From TrEMBL:
Top-level taxon of origin: Bacteria
Designated name of the protein: Methyltransferase domain-containing protein
Biological process (GO), any one: methylation
Keyword vocabulary terms for this entry: Methyltransferase, S-adenosyl-L-methionine, Transferase
PANTHER family assigned: METHYLTRANSFERASE (PTHR43464), UBIQUINONE BIOSYNTHESIS O-METHYLTRANSFERASE, MITOCHONDRIAL (PTHR43464:SF19)
Keyword Transmembrane helix: no
UniProt source species: Georgenia satyanarayanai
Record-level Gene Ontology MF annotations: methyltransferase activity
CDD domains: AdoMet_MTases
The keyword Transferase appears for this protein: yes
Pfam families per UniProt: Methyltransf_25 (PF13649)
Length: 281
């Protein structure tokens, strides 16, 4: 019964991304926090991919990180649960050098990777939250991602952060609690599950860093690294505008920001939590 419910929830998410369409492409480019988030994700990914690797990209969306994987010389199986996002991925990469890195594109729910062989990929990448849409099946999904990753290979992912999102979105959270009731707000803060909000357009599961620690072990993995996205750059676009405009100051800021994000004490502080895991020895 739970499986039916969560499958329906994932269908709801697929419909949301079908409707969201190219909004997803623009989401991280419109403000400084978004651009920093892309940079934090790019640099995190670069630690775990090397030339010639075969990568499964899950929830690829319009291809922000497909292009990145192509730049690293990887060959990529591009997947998404949303047919619209998969088509946008094709459209955005068409005519670019990155397209030659794409082996094929296919529809895939992160919760069902049974079509792939054990250890088929060097790296499995799920940036931007596919695992935030697995709900009750998250642990099984993560175990599935490890199964199809070769021994010594890496699963690299990011999920929505409960505490960082609460802090960053506080005005909206307070407003929502007033509208739907403090009991609903309590339930969301306790569980990270936005399905508690009646009539929510976008539902997802948000995590605490300690949830990721627990999930990694439960799925048979070992955490290699964790990072927040972002740390100092949330809600400070006015201050950071002049810094971004100066290449030297900006590169220094990004270095400090990426370093801060990877401090253990920062893991819960951003809107997303990035992590990399491998098989337990
Ligand atoms: C926020 S976008 C991230 C896109 C891209 N990975 C990035 O980081 O820029 C989330 C993507 O995950 C996809 N997605 C959502 N639920 C999924 C699921 N259960 N399985 C696979 N993909 C899913 C959505 O369709 C969407 O394209």
């Amino acid at each position: 019964m739970i499986i039916d419910v969560t499958a329906r929830d994932r269908a709801r998410v697929r419909d949301y991304y079908d409707r969201f369409a190219d909004g997803e492409h623009d989401r991280l480019s419109v403000d400084i926090a978004g651009r920093v988030s892309v940079e934090v994700h790019r640099r995190f990914l670069a630690r775990f991919v090397t030339h010639g690797q075969r990568v499964l990209e899950i929830g690829a969306g319009p291809g922000r990180f497909t292009t990145e994987l192509a730049d690293h010389g990887c060959s990529v199986v591009v997947t998404d649960i949303s047919p619209v996002q998969l088509e946008l991925n094709r459209a955005h990469l068409a005519g670019t050098r990155s397209e030659s890195a794409v082996q094929r594109r296919e529809l895939l729910d992160v919760c069902d990777t049974s079509r792939y062989a054990d250890g088929e990929f060097d790296v499995v990448l799920a940036f931007g939250g596919p695992l935030s849409y697995a709900f009750e099946d998250t642990e099984a999904a993560l175990r599935g991602l490890l199964r199809i990753t070769r021994p010594g290979g890496t699963v690299v992912a990011s999920v929505m952060s409960m505490l960082g999102t609460w802090r960053h979105q506080l005005p909206g959270v307070v407003q929502l609690a007033a509208a739907v009731g403090e009991d609903v707000n309590d339930a969301v803060l306790r569980t990270g599950d936005l399905r508690h909000v009646p009539g929510a357009d976008h539902v997802c599961q948000m995590f605490r860093a300690r949830d990721i620690d627990r999930l990694a072990v439960a799925a048979g993995g070992r955490l290699l690294a964790m990072s927040a996205s972002n740390w100092a750059s949330l809600g400070n676009d006015d201050v950071l505008g002049p810094v971004e405009a100066d290449p030297d100051r900006w590169s220094r800021f990004l270095r400090h920001e990426v370093d801060a994000c990877s401090e253990p004490g920062a893991a819960d502080g951003g809107t997303h939590i990035l992590f990399a895991l491998t098989h337990e020895r």
